[in-house]
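This is your field. Have a critical look at both lines of this record:
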Amino acid sequence: MIPRFSVVARLKIFGSQRLGLGLVTAMAVTGALVMGGTGLGTSVLAAETVTIRLGRFSQTIALADLETFVATGEVPPSLGLYRPVLTPSVRQALGDQISLDPDVSQVILDEILTTPGGSQLLETLEAVAPNLTPADLKATIDEASKSPEGLTLLGLLRVIPQDTLEINLGTLISLGSQFRLAQMESEALSRVLRKDLSDTPVDITPLEDMDPFSEGESQVERWELLLRDRQRDRQIPVDVYWSRDTQGPLVVISHGFGADRRFFAYLAQHLASHGLTVVAVEHPGSNVAALMSLPVVDPPEEDKLSRILPATEFLDRPRDISFVLDRLEKLNLYSYTLRGRLDTDQVTLIGHSLGGYTGLALAGAALDLRSLQSFCPDLSPVSFSPADWLQCAALDLPVKYANLKDNRISQLIVTNPLTGLLFGEAGLSRVQVPTLMVASTHDSVTPMAKQQLGPFMQLSGPKYLMTVLGGSHLSVGDPDNLNADLHRIPFMPEVPDSSTAAMRQFFQGISLSFIMQQTDDADAYAPMLSADYAQLFSTDDLSLRLSQDLPARLSHWPRLRQGAFYHQETLMAYGSSLLHLEAMAVQDHFQTLQRQMLAYLRTSPPSLTAIYRPRRFFSPHLQAQRHGSNRATP
């Protein structure tokens, strides 16, 4: 869902111990990092200091002192006040190189300066750095893009055309706190879900004649086709995975924004090896090639439509799938090789991110933009996610309602789907086909609470929820077909390929088992659709949960109530949600202690020992009292 360009920096900001100078320097250029380069002239001045203001307090810090800290790791006396936040991770962030790709930077900068969402972000940056104008940002990025070896974060600060960069520390801390609360909320949710896993005993049904988690026996061929939709003047590349043993439902794959048809190549290969035909579709208006070839408009047009994600893609993507199915239907009748191997009457659509939106729209969720009309103008740059920004691009459509349903879609598998308010507040209740949804607790692109858990509760058909505790937005992707630079973007945390191997193997098997529920072999594959197998493939890095509903205690989670999670997320809203989750975690802890104590008492009951003291140990006075006498014994 995120483009494959190299406007990236290894800045892991807003961590638990990074409020302060690390945030000051990182946030000062965060907007610049996502804006890309321009062709404006060079700067005359160059920043030598950073002035930090908090109310009436202000302090000026020399960039040379920061450079000393990065080079040696020693904190100069002038930075002694900030010693607690000058951690090794902050040192690494300040010293890491920033690479800017001039091919796409102009378009991204125009997007931020001229679209409503970008203007809001720019206003936030101006609140953080009051003396940094848009012209300064343009000149700074222009200087950075000219460097053949890239710049460090400190180097980028150096080329700002001001003698000093002024930072409003109060505003910056407020922004950092918001991000940190969101991170803490994800961690608390993971603990609650992980607790449910630890309480469930594992009961695995032995596999006999088939193993959906291992590669099948069929020899897979992959054909590349280019289908042209003349009516829409759109050429659609597809990969067809098939074998001589092909039978059963047809599987169609829809990739996310800025990706391509190879995003799920490992999954397509696996399903085809078990005798299914898989068709991976590439959407030409929102794939990586389209993103890399965006036209530059100079000068940028005010109030222009989004060019990063054209609004028409919200209509064209579902229509791409319907068009491909029409063509495959003909191939199934007339192709000498593929005849009878393309069952377009039974189609399981697998979609990731924006591809998840595509699948839900085809399954019956009508595009309804009326709720977005009130949400997007007030979108807060503090709490917005990339999904919020992308869904708001749909407002440029000339229509506000569209039914894109295709009755040939009989099942859905959607991973980290983009949903938001694209279907209105209850549009997903129209999805009645069986659906397997995959959500990741550390997905910062399509956050789980907004984009998956709430929408999952609306689905009205048979449904499963696979939760990846610790997973990110790209965890389910094919590691051989992902741009490594994507993991270096701050909101795209890296999960090593070795850590996702077991999860991807489980996803392969669970997808096959789910698809086979449309066949005569449904009963044989049904046992794999259980929480037990999810736990079997769980690791210390990524725990897996599979269920048909949310834990009952999460049904009243404040941010999952109808409509509540679409409102602007203030610090108070995050705080109430976090307290709710933490209260559940504390309750879980006490219940665990109670069960451990009861288990101990059942196996090792306490022994009661009576101690008798011989009479000679009593004093004469006490012995006299015991015999009713006041007389002392000589």
Observations:
- Residues 72 and 514 are 56 Å apart (CA to CA).
- Confidence is low (pLDDT under 50) at residues 2-44, 558-572, 629-634.
- Residues 571-603 form the longest helix (33 residues).
